[in-house]
Write the structure tokens for this entry.
Amino acid sequence: MSFLDASSVCYVLVPQSVLGTLHSSYFALEIENDDIHPHSQERKNQNESQDPADFYQMLAIAAMEQKKDGPLYTENKDGKQIRVRALQYMNICHLKRELATEVKQIRNKHTTSHAQMERIRKSMKHYVGALRDLRFMLESRSANPRTEEFLRNLLYIKDAKDHAILLDAGFIHPDPGQGNEQYYPRVYNYTGEGGGRHHEDTALQQTREFLNRVKMALFGGIVLVAPMLIMRLHPTELTTLLTTSIFVLVVAVVLAWYMKEADKKDILGATAAYAAVLVVFVGASNGG
């Protein structure tokens, strides 16, 4: 029996007489050292790359380093902030991975089982529920502007309004100067639509709507009177053409911006009617 040293790999050569049942005359028994052997380290890396923990590590890094749509956690001069919507995106990615893993098993085995279908049913229920919750987060939640703003702010955990929560979670340190008040979480008492503040919210909304109507009324009067005054005080052909063209374009852009629920033909009709009024005024002025 002989031993060959080959850089941390020991090959033990055993004669056939010792193991008569072997097919070859000698066989090599490789004793690996995981800390030194390069092939062993490569296989170890391959196994680690297939570890589900790697996926979740990459998921956490992607959520924290997201810059375009906003990261999961930010810390700047305005304080610390956690985006709850980013957590929902992470939850959806997790559920997608669960479903993809089940589909891979079905593809490889060309069959399924009762236990697997139960897992898929539960995962699908959670996935559809996550999409429904995400839709609630993305869409408008109330016709009342104040209620909408209140619900939208709940999608963030901010230092200004959730100081006690971030303090308890370890994101911030206690301030000795604030006393025990900093440890009390803020419990919201906003009653919203139909609650104790309903009349206040309704009055505020009516005031805003009235101011918007006043703005549009003033705008309508200005865009009619201003070009007439300009063309009357400066009765030149160039002034008339430039004034008419500029005001028609301005009115068209403003109508397109504010008439969000109007149809395209309605905006076109309103712009054409305004242009017709200016044309009539120009014709009457030239005729006079």
About this structure: Strands lie at 2-6, 9-13, 28-31, 73-76, 79-83, 156-158. DSSP finds nine helices and six strands in the chain.
